[in-house]
């Protein structure tokens, strides 16, 4: 893989602090710094979109749900999914990720029952990293990689931790996802929708709905997102 913000069929790893604030991206073994909210934006060179708040996003209808990431001092929650999405045909000049252009490329589903099973966030809590995949046959171009932690530990009060990085996918892929797999933000989520409004402590279900569009059917390509 070439990199000057370039991504081909290989691993992208992001390391995060706290409640999801990513500090480092690793692509093909090369480390790239994330945005530092403690320092002035002037002079910072990063593939990551800026973020600053220490608090989670509680509303699934706010404009910041696209790419604004909150952060705190320690990741402590094991209940909830981890999702990764890429903006198809993204222009780096468009900072808002507007339009019906986002696709779900991977999600952290649970095993066991909802109230006591293993969630994607449980993996993040235990291993301090998350790995997902981008389709190998995805058409090349500029993309926003959006990874999100959705904490469900407080009944019916979801906490959203989304973040975005800018990458350029290279290669000979020609595939783009069908419209049914694409969505926009914040329209993809509903406050009363499945997977968002849920009391995990009273549920004995063995599956949980991941909010947003269906998982895109473009196999084999790697995005890794991690937290620390």
TrEMBL record:
Annotated keywords: Carbohydrate metabolism, Cellulose degradation, Disulfide bond, Polysaccharide degradation, Secreted, Signal
InterPro entries given for it?
AA9, AA9_LPMO
Q: Which GO terms describe its cellular component?
A: extracellular region
Please list the residue ranges annotated as the Auxiliary Activity family 9 catalytic domain. Answer: 19-206
- Which GO molecular function annotations are given, in alphabetical order? cellulase activity; cellulose binding
Q: Where is the signal peptide?
A: 1-18
State which Enzyme Commission number(s) the record gives. 1.14.99.56
- Name where it mostly resides: secreted
* Catalytic reaction equation(s): [(1->4)-beta-D-glucosyl]n+m + reduced acceptor + O2 = 4-dehydro-beta-D-glucosyl-[(1->4)-beta-D-glucosyl]n-1 + [(1->4)-beta-D-glucosyl]m + acceptor + H2O
Q: Which cofactor does it need?
A: Cu(2+)
List locations, semicolon-separated: Secreted
**What is one GO biological process annotated to this record?**
cellulose catabolic process
Comment text on domains = Has a modular structure: an endo-beta-1,4-glucanase catalytic module at the N-terminus, a linker rich in serines and threonines, and a C-terminal carbohydrate-binding module (CBM).
Q: What does this protein do?
A: Lytic polysaccharide monooxygenase (LMPO) that depolymerizes crystalline and amorphous polysaccharides via the oxidation of scissile alpha- or beta-(1-4)-glycosidic bonds, yielding C1 and/or C4 oxidation products. Catalysis by LPMOs requires the reduction of the active-site copper from Cu(II) to Cu(I) by a reducing agent and H(2)O(2) or O(2) as a cosubstrate.
What is this protein's record name? AA9 family lytic polysaccharide monooxygenase
Whose protein is this, by species? Choiromyces venosus 120613-1
| Lineage, opening ranks | Eukaryota, Fungi, Dikarya, Ascomycota, Pezizomycotina
